[in-house]
Design brief:
The complex is a heterodimer of chains A (306) and B (271).
Chain A (H helix, E strand, L loop, with lengths): L1 E4 L4 E4 H18 L4 H10 L4 H25 L5 H27 L3 H32 L21 E4 L4 E4 L1 H17 L4 H11 L4 H26 L5 H22 L4 H24 L6 E5 L3
Antiparallel strand pairs in A: 1-2, 3-4
Helix pairs in contact in A: 1-9, 2-3, 3-8, 3-9, 4-6, 4-8, 5-10, 6-7, 6-8, 7-8
Chain B lengths: L5 H12 L3 H4 L1 E7 L2 E4 L6 E10 L5 H9 L6 H5 L1 E7 L2 E12 L3 E14 L2 E5 L3 H4 L2 H6 L10 E2 L9 H13 L3 E5 L2 E4 L2 E8 L6 E11 L2 E14 L1 H12 L1 H25 L1
Helix pairs in contact in B: 8-9
Classes of the chains: A mainly alpha (306), B alpha+beta (271).
């Protein structure tokens, strides 16, 4: 069954798009991640223009993170004080990100920028995940205890000025840390169409030393706001949010996420992380391969918007 | 082209210069359907151009010419050749060139923009174009995608633009937006017809359809129509909404996503 996407301006197979949403949803349910970092490359591989892929993936992340954010809110697992600071940073970051995006689009380097960012971030995150999970698996087999988180010792982050007391997180740290983290994530959301949880969660745990029980809820809180803002900014400047594509992806992702969550109970945490690490690396390598192999046609054409 | 006899050469000159020549040959053609509609189930459509070439029974020159050439040796000379051209709305197109930068990454390094490039181009003819008319005539009439006149936006005309022009046509052809169908116009007696296949990714806007009757290397008669290609109501509304009311559109996209996410969690909890 074919459907015409009004903004991407291309006919697509409905089942293919539902399947893609389902696959990404399955993986996000399985690994407990947002999935935006897989959605954007997948859309690009399917021939969706990169700008539409990024803006629409960001819009889809709004839908996939809102129910999770609500669930954590009901369990009181959100630090609002921290959350608002992350959002404030995210607003600044996404405005800068959209400006960069527009600039790169005008100079014809947007594909390169998106691909390079993905290769860099996915490569780095993939390697770290794989390293960490393989070490954990090896330690378990050797009968050693799991490594604890490095809580307690104060890093340079704690010596910054503008200190605030975060009651929910039981922290007394500078406001600069959360704002800078939020800003970086906002930049990624605007330029890559990702929620940014894969950067934010480790940063909150290892840099800010937040309790792990409220990390996911607080990051989802930030993601809902920032992806919503990025959707609006892309609608205003690049005009590349495709609501039809987004809704199809959401439907697929919701179903896939349920299946993934059920399936995840059968696998161990380290094994899951190792698998995710491999998957993330594979996407990064595929994008890197496309960048370094000679293109079939050196020339490409872009139609200027009416 | 085959060498013409002196008699037919004289007639060629006559038809070329006589002011009424475009009406002397009766080309009567029409097309169906009259609009192109891009619906949500759009997988492409077809337009049929059909018509007839009528001859004036009292045209002595024509009789003379018909006696001179036999259909076997020169089919186009007796009946004439038909070229059908469908052209999409003008676009501004940027052609980008990639280079191997630093010996590592392939990235865009150069851009040349062209103005008034047809968004879609379809040509159907009875025979190969170089058998129908001379290169000069083909270029003047912009017959064939290699004879299209593409104006650069800012750059001055130079031979360096040639690869960009070729690349534009090549890319459009690869997208199925530039098509040449040699032999796509078929005669059955004095009736001809051609089927223009329009793919799903054609741009919206005004299209022109033209039919040319070419005899002895010159355009002797022509007829043209204006067509409108539009996305169906639903897609057009979304597209216009996104471009004309971007703030409201963006807000709607957010609200839809929030509602879909909330609805999903409710449905999942109850099942």
């Amino acid at each position: 069954m074919e459907i015409y996407l009004p903004i991407a301006e291309m006919p697509v197979n409905v089942l293919l798009i539902l399947g893609m949403g389902g696959a990404v949803g399955f993986l996000s349910g399985l690994f407990g991640v947002g999935g935006g970092f897989l959605m954007t490359p997948l859309l690009m591989f399917a021939g969706v223009p990169p700008a539409v892929a990024v803006a629409t993936a960001a819009n889809q992340v709004v839908a996939s993170s809102v129910s999770g954010a609500f669930a954590h809110y009901r369990r009181q697992a959100v630090d609002f004080q921290m959350g608002w600071l992350l959002v404030a940073g995210g607003i600044v970051g996404s405005v800068i990100g959209i400006y960069l995006f527009d600039l790169m689009k005008a100079t014809g380097q947007i594909e390169l920028m998106i691909s390079l960012s993905y290769v860099l971030f996915l490569g780095l995150v993939g390697i770290l995940m794989l390293y960490e999970s393989v070490r954990a698996i090896w330690r378990r087999q050797a009968g050693m205890p799991a490594v604890g988180r490095g809580q307690g010792h104060h890093s340079w982050i704690h010596r910054l000025p503008l200190k605030l007391r975060f009651r929910r997180s039981r922290l007394y740290i500078s406001a600069i840390g959360p704002v800078v983290i939020g800003l970086s994530v906002g930049l990624l959301t605007a330029t890559m169409g990702v929620g940014g949880g894969f950067i934010m969660i480790p940063a909150m745990i290892y840099l800010l030393h937040m309790p792990t029980s409220i990390v996911v809820g607080t990051s989802l809180f930030q993601i809902v706001f920032v992806t919503a803002l990025v959707t609006l900014l892309h609608a205003l400047s690049t005009k590349s949010v495709d609501v039809v594509l987004s809704l199809l992806l959401v439907v697929g992702a919701v179903i896939g996420a349920q299946l993934g969550a059920r399936f995840s109970l059968r696998l161990r945490g380290e094994q899951l992380r190792a698998l995710l690490g491999l998957l993330v690396l594979a996407v990064a390598l595929r994008l890197a391969f496309d960048l370094v192999t000679p293109p079939a046609d050196l020339y490409s054409i872009v139609t200027k918007a009416p | 082209m085959k060498r013409m006899r002196p008699a037919s050469l004289a007639i060629f000159m006559l038809t070329l210069f006589s002011p009424g020549s475009l009406r002397a040959e009766g080309l009567v053609a029409d097309l169906s359907p009259g609009t192109i509609s891009i619906t949500s189930s759009f997988t492409g459509t077809e337009i049929t151009v059909f018509g007839t070439v009528e001859r004036d029974p009292f045209d002595l020159l024509d009789l003379l010419r018909r006696r001179d050439t036999t259909p076997e040796t020169q089919p186009g000379a007796t009946r004439g050749d038909i070229i059908v051209v469908l052209r999409g709305p003008p676009e501004e197109i940027a052609v980008r060139r990639k280079a191997h930068v630093g010996g590592v990454i392939w990235m865009n390094v150069d851009t040349v923009s062209f103005l008034d490039v047809p968004g879609f181009y379809y040509l159907a003819s009875t025979r190969p174009l170089d058998e129908i008319a001379s290169q000069t005539v083909l270029e003047r009439g912009e017959f064939g995608m290699d004879n299209m006149q593409l104006k650069p936006k800012t750059d001055a005309e130079s031979p360096a633009l040639a690869p960009y022009r070729k690349a534009l046509v090549r890319n459009k052809a690869r997208q199925g937006l530039y098509v040449e169908s040699i032999g796509g116009v078929r005669f059955r007696g004095s009736l001809f017809s051609a089927t223009v296949r329009i793919p799903a990714n054609v741009p919206d806007g005004r299209y022109s359809a033209e039919v040319f009757l070419i005899r002895d290397g010159a355009v002797v008669s022509a007829q043209s129509w204006l067509l409108l290609a539009e996305k169906s109501v639903f897609e057009r509304r979304i597209f216009r909404f996104a471009y004309q009311e971007p703030f409201a559109y963006g807000t709607l996209a957010i609200v839809l996503a929030l509602a879909a996410g909330a609805l999903a969690s409710v449905v999942i909890r109850t099942t």
